[in-house]
Amino acid sequence: MARHEIRLSGSGGQGMITAGIILAMAASLYDGKKSIQSQSYGPEARGGASKAEVIIDDIDINYPKVIAPDILVALTQEAVDKYSKDLKNGGVLIVDDMLVRKLPEGNFTVYKLPIIKTAAERVGKAMVANIVMLSALNTICHLVDSDSLNTAVLSSVPKGTENLNKKALEIGALLVSETTLK
Fold it and tell me: Cα separation of 177 and 49, whole Å?
């Protein structure tokens, strides 16, 4: 496996920080890889731009910050505008197709997915959009074993929400195949 630098971005309250923590946990605790996670969010926390960064590698990670992400997830227009400038040539950009209308210029593969709408309508709760996104991201980029991601999600979510999050994982993976086959 090559090194992966991932930036998950959106607005405060969308769960990008939690998603970054879960992804790093899946990589290091359940897949046996090296990972590191960092986060930042605007002073307003809920509603302002937020990002979580995760680095996954097979070897030790000497610098804990993402320099130029291979993968950027942006759930809002503000996030894509603010965090896409250093996306690597040939990288992957995953956006929510409802909230991101203007895509940045660049040589990268773009996946426009109805992440938030899917969480609300097919899973039943918009609050699990971060889990739908994680599953879609992992389906596209194969960062960790799907069982490792499932275990990390289910060990991280509040008690009583396991079935809801299992459904979010399933729907997120389905979303990729349904969207890319159109």
Answer: 29
Ordered by start, the domain boundaries in the chain are 4-180
pTM: 0.93
pLDDT in tens, 91-115: 999 999 999 999 999 999 999 999 9
Instruction: Give the up-direction half-sphere exposure of residue 22: CA atoms within 13 A in the CB hemisphere.
Output: 30
What angle in degrees, to the nearest 10, is found between the helix axes of 129-141 and 162-180?
50
Options 3.30.420.40, 3.20.20.60, 3.40.920.10, 3.40.50.150; CATH of 4-180: 3.40.920.10
Alpha carbon of 151 to those of 29, 66, 82, 93, 132: distances in Å? Answer: 10, 25, 32, 25, 15
Q: Which residues does 29 contact at the CB level (< 8 Å), separation at least 6?
A: 152
